[in-house]
Design goal:
Layout lengths: L3 H9 L2 E7 L3 H12 L4 E5 L22 H14 L3 E4 L6 E2 L5 E4 L5 E9 L3 E4 L14 E2 L2 H4 L8 E4 L5 H8 L6 E5 L6 H9 L3 E4 L2 E7 L2 E7 L4 E3 L2 E3 L3 E4 L2 H6 L22 E3 L10 H31 L2
Parallel strand pairs: 1-2, 1-6, 2-3, 6-17, 8-15, 9-10, 9-15, 10-11
Antiparallel strand pairs: 4-5, 5-6, 7-16, 12-13, 13-14
Length: about 325
């Protein structure tokens, strides 16, 4: 009869076919495919989705307008309905476990292991350091016109342009309103860019935005460093996308020059047995895109496991 300590050790060192780190659209989509393929799957979810501040998500066929939390709740139910497991926790590192698997330590001391890994930890949005901006994030300070443009159509829209590259972003935002103002640092735009803004009746305000103005818990404009105030109802801000890639980097996965994981068409990284899906490797992935990438990665992971199962069966047959 094993001792209590031994029983606890056996529970803590649970082994799975696939451990998925991240319980967003990509992670749960992958878990659903793998659970339906009768794989033993664990999703480790820290419970801090990037789109948590948003009241609704859009552009997801048949789920348009659904609150993000409801989508994840549906995903959890589907995954567990097929026998997949979900664990709330934070992965502290990823470690090679011999030649055919990985050890996954969690905060609190628990440790699980998996034959394959899928990392779907997403990214964080790094906003300009402007007082009041972060507090309005996902309310009336937005980043994706395809996600939120329709809901703020025909309002007074502003676009914060941190660089000349954001001029095209402002041109896209202009599809949703005839009253758009582009805020640009002084002297950063070319003549062609100015002409393009003027041709589509996009206002240009040059200077440094000093703070966001709020009245009655609604954004009402911005104040510039020279004291000017420009009334706006909504601000679109292209943030700097920073992937949550620390776990991948610690495992030795190669990153490109911009800091994004190098992957093939299925999401496999440069470390054999490790895949990525969603915003951790694709900053432009919307919810529906991330879900598709999770599904594609899951199919590739299962095929890889089947190849290993065949090799193991042949080896065992010859004994």
């Amino acid at each position: 009869m094993p001792t209590r300590e031994r029983r606890l050790r056996l529970v803590d060192m649970s082994r799975y076919d696939v451990v998925i780190i991240g319980g967003g659209a990509a992670g749960f989509s992958a878990a659903l495919v793998l659970a339906r393929a009768r794989r033993k799957v664990l999703v480790v979810d820290a419970g801090a989705p990037r789109n948590a501040p948003a009241s609704h998500m859009h552009g997801f066929l048949s789920r348009d307008g659904l609150p993000p939390g409801e989508l994840l709740a549906l995903g959890r139910a589907e995954v567990t309905g097929y026998g997949g497991e979900i664990l709330e926790g934070t992965v502290t590192e990823l470690v090679r476990d011999g030649t055919s698997g990985f050890s996954v330590p969690l905060s609190g001391g628990r440790r699980v292991s998996g034959r394959r890994l899928l990392v779907a930890t997403g990214l964080r949005d790094e906003l300009p350091d402007i007082p009041g901006l972060a507090e309005r994030w996902a309310r009336d300070v937005l980043h994706c016109p395809y996600c939120h443009g329709y809901e703020v159509r025909d309002q007074r829209l502003g676009v914060l342009g941190a660089s000349p590259d954001t001029v095209h972003y402002a041109q896209i935002v202009a599809q949703w309103s005839e009253d758009v103002v582009f805020f640009a640092p002084t002297g950063t735009l070319s003549t062609a860019q100015r002409t393009g803004l003027t041709a589509r009746s996009i206002g240009l305000v040059e200077g440094t935005v000093q703070r966001v103005l709020v009245e009655g818990d609604r954004l009402c404009g911005v104040e510039l460093d020279d004291g000017r105030t420009i009334g706006r109802d909504v601000l679109f801000v292209p943030p700097r996308f920073v992937p949550h890639h620390d776990l991948l980097q610690g495992l030795g996965c190669e990153l490109d020059e911009a800091g994004w994981p190098v992957k093939d068409s299925t999401g496999q990284t440069t470390v054999a047995g490790v895949w990525v899906a969603g915003n951790v490797a694709n900053p432009r992935a919307q919810v529906i895109t991330a879900a598709g990438e999770g599904s594609a990665a899951a199919i590739a992971i299962n095929a890889d496991l089947v190849d290993e199962d065949v090799r193991t069966a042949v080896r065992d047959m010859g004994r």
